[in-house]
Amino acid sequence: MDLATYYTEQSSITNPAEYAHLYEDLPYDIAGLCKVVQGLIIHYRGAAMFNYTIPDERLAEIDTRYVPKMLARIRELDDRPLTGARSPEKRFVGCCRDFATLFCSMARYRGIPTRTRIGFAAYFTPGFNHDHEIVECWDAKEQRWRLVDPEMSERHIQENRIRFDVHDVPRDQFIVGGLAWQWCRADRANPDKFGVEPDSFAKGWWFIGHKLIQDLAAQNKMELLLWDTWGIMLKELTGEEDLALLDKLAVVTQAGAEGFAEQLSTYENVEGLKVSPPVMSYSPVAEPQEVEFAL
Question: Which of 54, 55, 136, 166 suits 252 as a labelling partner, its CA being 20 to 30 A distant?
Answer without folding.
Answer: 166
